[in-house]
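Repro:
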Amino acid sequence: MRYIALIDGEAGAYGVTIPDLPGCTAMGATIEEALAAAVDAMRDWADVLEEDGFGVPPPRAVADVRADPDVVDALAEGAMLATVALVRVTGRPVKANLSLDSGVLATLDAEAKRQGLTRSGMVEAMTKRLAAGNL
């Protein structure tokens, strides 16, 4: 699920709120860092909500979020919108058989090695960055 995120702040201090997840906020020195932190904050927020016996609310349509008076006010003050995916970490590894072009696989493996990751770790890291819109 992808949620609308509201980003405000200035270079060195950005904040992210998720209007559909009340109280779910994140910060970062750059927009990219703030969005990456939002992925973690959303996961933690959802985990706590479920531990308390509640379900995670579904994301609203973009038009509905844009019509929210608090969002309208924030946008008028210079905030921006982005989308962030809720990435749930279950702690249960699952094997996945992927078919990739040999050149793409070689690039993936080279980048994984450069970053000190396994191929699986690299795919997981890329997925988390994609969730935050940072690919």
